[in-house]
Prior knowledge:
- The structure is a single chain.
- By secondary structure, this protein is α+β, with helices and mostly antiparallel strands.
- The protein has helices at residues 16-32, 56-65, 72-84, 121-124, 211-223, 232-241; strands at residues 41-45, 48-55, 88-90, 103-106, 130-138, 145-153, 158-162, 172-175, 180-186, 190-196, 204-208, 227-228, 249-251, 257-259.
- The strands form 3 sheets. It has an 8-stranded mixed sheet with strand order 8-7-6-5-11-10-9-12, covered by helices on one side. Strands 1-2-4-3 form a 4-stranded antiparallel sheet.
- Strand 13 (249-251) and strand 14 (257-259) form a beta hairpin.
- The termini are far apart.
Amino acid sequence: TMSKTLHRPISAKLTKERIQAIREADSLVKRLRSAGGVSVRDRSYHLKVYKSCFVASELVDWFVANGDAQTRQRGVELGQLLVDTDYIHHVVDEHNFEDQYLFFRFRQDESPEQCLQGPSVMYMRGEDGVMIGRLGVKRPLFPGWANYVFALSSATKMLFQFQTELDSSPMCSYSLVGCQVQPNFQANNIHTLTFLRPNKDKSLVLCTHDKAVQTEWIQKLESIGVEVVMSQSEGTAIAKNASSVFQFRAKDINGNVVTLDKYTGHVTLIVNVASL
């Protein structure tokens, strides 16, 4: 029995180009999953059975035979469009779309235990206000840091953690509502971001070796309402090394953290209201 086509929601948070891509992909999927569409069945490879999947090169054959692609390269581009819009994915999330004997699966054909638990990196790339980057996570039992892909959604105020950019769903997700982030600097050029989450005993600590990357994440987090708090050591270091008042941050009348460098070049009056 043919399952119903999964329609991607058209959100106001998506770019015009992304909306157009989703509509094009949705139209293709309707035809692919109707009578005469691409062959979906259980397949085996190296003694392992993969349920309800199709072969990538056969999908390219279908695109060419049905006039959607004049060349096989165009067929690959259409296949990648379906990956990018999250309609299909490689069965073990190790490949982008290629004209090869690779198994891919429609999202709606996933078994309940493998169903999507969150957005993929590919899908999030088309949403406005999303920041994606690779950051380190402190290893719990071993020294050093493990690198993962993180995606921050402004719309949901959620931080998603992925093994790679090809993952079909996040391995972890963190709500940033009511969260604080504390930047710091450690030895060996490690710049950290410690997320202090309400009602959580353990904090999430991420790192980068690039100060500019740390600053970029801080600015993005501030823009969605995450409060930035300085550790005592970080505050002391900034105070000692600051060459200008514009290197500091302060809260405005609404409680939002503001970087004072926005006032550079303007006559600025600073008043200590606590002593008035």
